[in-house]
Amino acid sequence: MAQARLLALTPNQKRAVAVAVVFGGLQSANQIRKWVKAAQNKQKELVKDIHGKQTSRSHSAKIAVNKVFLKRLYTILSICVPGLFTREAFLVLVQGVLLVSRTLLTDYISRVEGYCGRALTSLEFANFGRGVIDFALLGVPAAVVNSGLKFMQKNLELSFQSRLTLYLHKLYTSNRAYYAASTLGGLTHADQRITEDVEKFCFSVSDLYSHTFKPLLDVLLFTHSLSRVMGYKGQLGLYAYYMAVAWLLRALAPPLAAMTAQESALVGSFRCAAAGPPSG
User: Fold this and answer.
1) 260, burial (CB in 10 Å: exposed 0-12, middle 13-18, buried 19+)
2) Weakest-pLDDT range from 50-64, 110-124, 200-214, 215-229
3) Per-residue pLDDT tens for 15-63?
4) Mean pLDDT calculated for residue range 258-275
5) Do residues 32 and 24 touch, judged by C-beta distance below 8 A?
6) Which of 2, 18, 151, 207 has the fewest CB atoms within 10 Å distance of its CB?
7) Are 221 and 214 in contact (CB under 8 A)?
8) 36/176 Cα distance (integer angstroms)
9) Among residues 222, 224, 210, 221, which one has the least CA distance to residue 97?
10) CA dist 83 → 78, 164, 209 (Å)
11) HSE on the CB side for 247, CA within 13 Å?
12) Can you give the pLDDT at residue 218?
């Protein structure tokens, strides 16, 4: 019905409709941009520190992944993994092997699923049965690899936490640093930083390794596998769509880094207040 009415329009009417559609789209995009800007302003109001001042007082204080962040991360990781021939380095190597194995298993399982689908649609029940048996047999190594990844991640977290906690306690108890931190105010919420913050950091770092290395490996391997089916041109369009969606999500997402820092500060202040005023 609507298509018939559109075909019945004259060329001038069609141009007028096209202009109206483009104009309406631009107006809608402008309105969405205003809504996003308003939402971002509200989100910035949520990340004020406990004194009512915003955490980003200047561009230099802005929380971001820059050279300073990478340098500090490298320094901390050098404490967690002090050398190549250490237990932590061995755990990282084993977890890397498990991540590669999981990616290869995922690719092979996808091929088996495609084989089963083709056999079922072609009514080749013998081939379908063999595919189901292969799929069932693959479940055993897949379960072992997934369990191994969780086990190795927890071991990495505990090893990093042990190294970092011992290092911080050594610094905290040397040269009366604990006195300067607790009495002179040289370090606020020292107990919070040495205990809970270290635990959260070690968990995030151990989880970050599997969430960065494996996706990169997946992209390389699956790009090669999908090129046989849809070619590289189709994949470029797919990746462009992913990048556009990632940019949109980043624009709409709240400042999570500043919120996390504020959360840690509030937890430390609450713990300090609950412990009571310092004696003396």
Assistant:
1) middle
2) 50-64
3) 777 777 777 777 777 777 777 777 667 666 665 544 454 444 444 455 5
4) 70
5) no
6) 2
7) no
8) 50
9) 210
10) 8, 14, 17
11) 6
12) 77
Cα gap 142→140, rounded to integer Å? 5
Q: Which residues does 193 contact at the CB level (< 8 Å), separation at least 6?
A: 168, 187, 268
Closest among 70, 71, 72, 90 to 81, alpha carbons compared: 90
In 46-124, which ranges are continuous DSSP H helix? 67-80, 87-121
Give the Cα separation of 239 and 219 in Å (integer). 10
What pLDDT digit, counting tens, does each position of 75-114 carry? 988 888 888 888 889 998 998 888 888 888 888 888 888 8
**How many Å apart are CA 222 and CA 105, to the nearest integer?**
12
The 3-state secondary structure of 172-189 reads HCCCCHHHHHHCCCCCCC
Please name which of 261, 255, 267, 250 lies closest in space to residue 42, comparing C-alpha atoms.
Answer: 255
With contact defined as beta carbons under 8 Å apart, do 69 and 109 qualify? no
Torsions phi, psi for 204 (to 5 deg)? -65, -40
Compute the C-alpha angle 12/13/15, nearest 5°.
Answer: 65
H or E stretch at 131 = helix 125-172
